[in-house]
């Protein structure tokens, strides 16, 4: 058993706080006798900080006051639903928590000493000095009366009295016996003595299966489950007689019992025995805390982490307690001491045995009252009640912890609005000691307190604090009242020229103010704080203000900021955003391009805004320059190819239908370098689009990229030769001049430029090769005859392919010394022999290829072709074998794979040519040729195939001669060739068609060609097949 003892000198007693009459008017009637002492205390409080009360007191009114006028209270019990009051006249009164009488009956003829209620609040038991215990049903007529003949001081109902048929209760009194009364099933009712004491039973408390009572020996605990007394807590040593100061007990829970003996407080913990104990009680008691006080305990409870003690007297009365044990004190002395009694106090003591607070309660008639006349009751079934009830014979006071509303009121009355707001906000968040009372403060009350504090800050000039406070406390509901409140505060800041402070907190989503308010704020920011203006415009929803009005204001302000480039850029960004909101892409793109907004050109393509950039070609090219300078080294110049591949240039060149080239050139004419980039990109993509600007492009190439001019001159055919030559002559661009002169036909002058200006032999020879002009070669040879380097160059580079080495050598003056002539002549001879060897080798290769192809042709012609009787003739669409059993049909197959009846192919050809031959015979008067006779015979064979077998061989020979004589061709392939020729002719120009017709007429005797112009060899048909 462990105990903690603290004497009055060792306890840290804080300021004993009195209850002022103004704060609690219910005590004003009995407070007059203490005016002098209260004045002294008030003067002490003025010297130091005023401390806020911890508890709130309220005297119960209602008709209970009428009861106290005729009767006095003797005992009290609080439940979850009501209060049970016992009086000295033996009445039991049920009152609500406001003091209104609910029910009343006369249960005893004298003083009621104790009352008890079951958990269901169905039955009320009372014990009185008349020796009776009365159990009365609240909602029925069930009344049980048991008379013990001697005063009964305490009674306790079984918590489950209403639920159990045993109807148990325990009682005790001056007889010193603790008696359990219960209803037996077979034998009626019976009383069982659980304990006998040498003195009276003062108090009984029944919790679940545990019964605790107090007597002269101390506090006893009985377990109803095992029907045994499990523990005894002796009275503290040195405590006064038990009958002088009644014991106070309260079950905090099923395992914790609080005991107050005179000036001692004990906390008893019930624990289960260890695993080693095989038998014995299920629980044992241990005093976990015990300490001495300098006052008499009249009531005891636990509230959160502190003891709540209803006390009587102070250390002066403790000093006289020893003499109270003696019977030698005169009666007059006792009465005088009673008249000098101090009012009771409600003290709060923490677990460190330190007094936290003390409230003096000047209850009515306190000078004549003793400790046993007072009582403290809490909710019977509550572990940690929020309300306690203090009883005196003439008053009933409700004590509650000061809630958030009380705390806030106390702070606001003293002008501490800041702390009030902090505590309210903490409670709303569920933090701090006031969190459980957060429902006591409504949102409107919180807003009113906040606005009052904001006015104070505003008057003090603390605009920053006021703005942050408004953001916290002003309403956010979208109602006209909320809008009015917000607008009034915004205008207040405007009057104080501090709109920049409140601007970040102005609501934009949950609640929307009038457009005038938002535009007023933006106008103020535009002229004073550009950064904040930009932030607000981007952050606020577009519907809050008129974008067009803001645009006009910004455009008016923009010229005034010429000295501040940074601010101009910020306003341009705002204009770009606002024009986008106004759906004016043409204006917004201008500012986006000036600001080099990333991805703006992608947006142009994605949203098809080409018309919007039609007049912004220069800005597009500047955007490209900026992007390239960021991506690459700014110091090194950008290549033309890199600039042409930039996104902006590609945008302009890929969409020439929406962005005309002429419009772009007109815009870029003042920026030649950008114009050069654009025209070069246009040339690489669609050269014909840049044709109108070819002369301009020549000048641009000559100025910015001379190395690319020659290539342009070769590719383009749209520039003026004269103007291009003039430009090249101005800049002395000889290679380009040479090319232009060559295009103009002045080859001699061009050659002279190469020879005189460039003195480049390879170039001169290359130029002569390109022109393929014999006279030009003669000029080159004649010019080179007295120049050794040209002679050697002609021999080495010209060789046998271009210039005739013999002519060059013959024109060499005899006396001219030519270094390197030997090597050059050797190369010429070596080149000549090499060409001869190449020709011979090529001939061998051609002969070999012809032989291989000829062998392949022969093999192909010797191969057979599969023919089925069911196959159809491609002319008559009849089966190849459509004859009767005595007929013999013949078919003709071509190397292309097509098969026909011989009468469908051969007979028409024979008839056509036979008519021509007969016409010639009649005209000339000659006899029929052998071929004519064969032809007649063949006709018979063709039409009469049922001849005898001996004639079959002759028929085959005749058909062979007819095939060789008339050379029939496959009509399918002929028709296909005709269609191909027609398709080809449809794509020819008139001049080409005329040239081809002329060529065909000149080459009628040459082998036939197909539609593509390649030679097509007509293969003879395979011999006729007999089917």
TrEMBL record:
One of its GO terms (biological process) is macroautophagy. InterPro entries: Beta-prop_Vps41, Clathrin_H-chain/VPS_repeat, TPR-like_helical_dom_sf, Vps41/Vps8, WD40/YVTN_repeat-like_dom_sf, WD40_repeat_dom_sf, WD40_rpt. Residues 36-52 have a biased composition (Acidic residues). CHCR repeats lie at residues 649-793. Residues 329-342 have a biased composition (Basic and acidic residues). Keywords: Protein transport, Transport. GO terms for cellular component: HOPS complex; late endosome. Residues 1-53, 323-342, 984-1027 are annotated as: Disordered. Pfam families: Beta-prop_Vps41 (PF23411), TPR_Vps41 (PF23556). It comes from the Eukaryota. Residues 999-1009 have a biased composition (Polar residues). Residues 55-399 form the Vps41 beta-propeller domain. Residues 1-16 have a biased composition (Low complexity). This is Vps41 beta-propeller domain-containing protein. It comes from Coemansia reversa (strain ATCC 12441 / NRRL 1564).
């Amino acid at each position: 058993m462990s105990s903690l003892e603290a004497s009055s000198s060792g306890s840290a007693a804080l300021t004993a706080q009195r209850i002022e009459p103004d704060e609690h008017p219910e005590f004003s009637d009995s407070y007059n006798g203490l005016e002098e002492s209260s004045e002294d205390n008030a003067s002490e409080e003025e010297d130091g900080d005023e401390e806020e009360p911890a508890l709130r007191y309220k005297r119960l009114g209602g008709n209970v006051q009428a009861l106290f006028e005729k009767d006095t209270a003797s005992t009290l019990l609080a439940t979850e639903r009501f209060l049970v009051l016992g009086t000295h006249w033996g009445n039991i009164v049920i009152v609500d928590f406001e003091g209104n009488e609910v029910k009343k009956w006369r249960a005893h003829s004298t003083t009621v000493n104790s009352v008890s209620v079951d958990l269901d609040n169905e039955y009320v038991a009372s014990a009185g000095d008349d020796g009776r215990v009365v159990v009365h049903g609240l909602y029925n007529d069930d009344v049980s009366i048991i008379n013990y003949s001697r005063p009964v001081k305490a009674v306790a109902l079984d918590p489950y009295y209403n639920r159990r048929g045993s109807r148990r209760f325990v009682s005790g009194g001056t007889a010193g016996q603790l008696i359990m009364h219960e209803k037996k099933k077979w034998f009626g009712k019976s009383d069982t003595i659980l304990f006998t004491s040498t003195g009276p039973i003062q108090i009984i408390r029944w919790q679940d299966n545990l019964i605790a009572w107090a007597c002269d020996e101390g506090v006893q605990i009985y377990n109803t489950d095992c029907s045994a007394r499990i523990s005894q807590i002796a009275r503290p040593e040195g405590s006064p007689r038990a009958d002088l100061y009644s014991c106070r007990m309260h079950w905090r829970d099923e395992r914790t019992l609080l005991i107050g003996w005179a000036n001692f407080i004990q906390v008893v913990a019930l624990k289960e025995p260890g695993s080693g104990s095989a038998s014995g009680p299920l629980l044992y008691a241990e005093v976990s805390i015990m300490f001495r006080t300098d006052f008499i305990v009249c009531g005891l409870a636990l509230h959160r982490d502190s003891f709540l003690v209803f006390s009587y007297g102070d250390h002066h009365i403790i000093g006289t307690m020893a003499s109270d044990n003696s019977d030698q004190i005169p009666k007059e002395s006792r009465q005088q001491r009673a008249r000098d009694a101090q009012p009771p106090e409600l003290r709060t003591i923490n677990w460190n045995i330190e007094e936290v607070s003390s409230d003096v309660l000047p209850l009515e008639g306190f000078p004549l009252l003793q400790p046993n006349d007072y009582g403290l009751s809490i909710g019977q079934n509550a572990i940690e009640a929020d309300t306690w009830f203090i009883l005196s014979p003439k008053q009933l006071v409700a004590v509650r912890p000061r809630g958030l509303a009380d705390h806030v009121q106390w702070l606001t009355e003293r002008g501490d609005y800041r702390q009030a707001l902090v505590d309210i906000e903490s409670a709303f968040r569920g933090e701090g000691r006031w969190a459980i009372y957060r429902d006591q403060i409504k949102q409107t009350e919180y807003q009113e307190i906040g606005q009052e504090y904001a006015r104070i800050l505003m008057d003090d000039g603390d605009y920053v604090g006021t703005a942050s406070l408004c953001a916290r406390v002003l309403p956010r509901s979208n109602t006209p009242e909320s809008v009015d409140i917000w607008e009034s505060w915004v205008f207040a800041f405007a009057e104080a020229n501090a709109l920049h402070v409140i601007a970040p907190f102005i609501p934009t989503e949950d609640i929307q103010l009038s457009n005038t308010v938002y535009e007023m704020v933006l106008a103020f920011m535009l002229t004073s704080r550009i950064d904040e203006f930009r932030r607000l415009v981007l952050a606020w929803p577009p519907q809050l203000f008129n974008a067009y009005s803001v645009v006009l204001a910004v455009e008016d302000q923009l010229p005034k900021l010429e000295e501040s480039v940074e601010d101009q850029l910020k306003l341009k960004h705002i204009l770009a955003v606002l024009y986008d909101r106004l759906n004016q892409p043409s204006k917004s793109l201008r500012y986006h391009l000036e600001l080099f907004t990333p991805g703006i050109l992608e947006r142009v393509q994605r949203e098809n805004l080409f018309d919007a950039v039609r007049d912004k070609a220069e800005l597009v090219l500047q955007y490209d320059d900026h992007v390239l300078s960021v991506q690459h080294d700014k110091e090194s110049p950008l290549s033309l190819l890199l600039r042409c591949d930039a996104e902006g240039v590609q945008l302009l060149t890929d969409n020439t239908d929406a962005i005309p080239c002429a419009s772009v050139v007109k815009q870029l004419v003042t920026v030649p370098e950008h114009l050069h980039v654009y025209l070069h990109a246009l040339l690489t993509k669609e050269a014909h689009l840049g044709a109108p600007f070819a002369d301009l492009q020549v000048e641009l190439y000559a100025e910015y990229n001379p190395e690319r001019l020659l290539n342009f001159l070769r590719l383009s055919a749209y520039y003026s030769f004269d103007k291009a030559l003039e430009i090249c002559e101005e800049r002395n661009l000889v290679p380009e001049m040479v090319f232009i002169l060559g295009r103009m036909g002045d080859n001699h002058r061009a050659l002279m430029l190469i020879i005189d200006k460039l003195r480049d032999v390879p170039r001169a020879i290359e130029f002569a090769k390109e022109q393929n002009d014999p006279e030009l070669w003669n000029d080159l040879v004649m010019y080179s005859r007295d120049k050794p380097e040209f002679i050697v160059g002609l021999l080495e580079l010209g060789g046998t392919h271009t210039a005739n080495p013999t002519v060059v050598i013959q024109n060499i003056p005899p006396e001219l010394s030519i270094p390197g002539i030997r090597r050059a002549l050797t190369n010429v001879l070596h080149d000549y022999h090499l060409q001869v060897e190449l020709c011979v080798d090529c001939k061998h290769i051609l002969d070999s290829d012809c032989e291989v192809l000829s062998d392949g042709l022969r093999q192909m012609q010797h191969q057979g072709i599969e023919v089925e009787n069911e196959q159809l003739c491609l002319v008559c669409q009849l089966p190849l074998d459509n004859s009767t059993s005595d007929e013999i049909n013949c078919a003709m197959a071509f190397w292309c794979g097509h098969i026909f009846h011989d009468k469908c192919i051969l007979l028409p050809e024979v008839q056509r040519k036979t008519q021509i031959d007969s016409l010639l015979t009649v005209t000339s008067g000659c006899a029929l040729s052998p071929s004519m006779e064969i032809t007649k015979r063949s006709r018979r064979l063709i039409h009469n195939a049922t001849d005898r077998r001996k004639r079959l061989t002759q028929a085959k020979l005749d058909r062979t001669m007819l095939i060789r004589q008339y050379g029939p061709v496959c009509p399918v392939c002929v028709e296909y060739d005709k269609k191909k020729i027609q398709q080809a002719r449809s794509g020819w120009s008139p001049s080409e068609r005329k040239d081809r017709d002329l060529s065909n007429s000149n080459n009628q005797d040459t082998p036939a060609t197909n539609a593509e112009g390649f030679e097509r060899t007509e293969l003879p048909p395979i011999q006729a097949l007999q089917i």
